[in-house]
Request: fold
Amino acid sequence: MNWLELIATVFGTAVAFVSLVKFAIDFYRAVKHGTDFTKWFSYGRKVKGLKYLSIFQKRSALGLRNEVSNSVRHQLTREIAKDVIHSYSVDRRGSRFSRSSRDQLGLMLSLLCLFGLIIAIGVLRNIASGTPATQKFIDSVTIVLSFWIAVVLCMLALQVIVLFWRLVNDCKSTSELIRFQVVQVPLESIPYCVENGKDYVFLDATIRERYQVPFMGTADRVQMLLDHGVATDGDVALKKSEAKQMKADDYKQVAGKLVDSFLAKTLEHGSEPVCFVFSQVGITAAFVTHVLWSRGLQAFYIGQTDGYQSEVRETIREIRMLRESGLL
Reply:
């Protein structure tokens, strides 16, 4: 069984190294962007303030006809309503764990299964068989367990490849953020970036080949950058990924033309919306945010959607609900 132990050790070391690097990148981003670390260790989110609002229901507690009391009750009701919408948005997400946590949990479960199967085979090998029938049964079980070890190893290899691919894209997006001096705005901070009554738009700045399916509908004020400009007319040969598109010689020219076309159609009504920019892996969105800044618009980079589709979608719906409810 030495070869199984060797394979398990190699995979365990590789997984531990990749997970450590991924955690270091996430921790660096969290520190740089001012993430609240209490959310890393909290599972749910309770609506706070309801017990304070109940004070105003008591006639003897505060004078209901008092102008200050009514003002406080009104403001408190608005804040609780915002908290209710945010809690509803969080509950609608596919998972309360981050993408990194899900990836690491999947790797750990696969490793546990692998070690469990190896231990089971080792125990069976050490059993002193009394009869040929017992030995035949042990050999059959060993073959089945060996098959499942091969399956788990294939799953582990696939998980490591996916994690490594995401790690490479994260490193490239982080490099682009540093290059263009762009800071990622956490999803929880988006409501504070929209002024009361000012228009806003969520811009999908993914620039790559065969990216045509909208992330969300226009009812949620989501627009695709590839819906504007020469790229949709076939005049520009797009690459297969954002990472390859970033290396293209005409990358900046194509992105600039797309942004200019987007602005020409967006600003024709005379309003300058606040732009929240994202992309599939977060690489091209960094430069598009920089271009929007250079055009004089207020733009915020909110990251990538790969692995965070549910979080981004529910945040966009939360902003729409706040605006339609008159709370934003």
Summary: The chain has a mean pLDDT of 79. The chain has three domains: 2-42+96-179, 50-91, 187-324. DSSP finds nine helices and four strands in the chain.
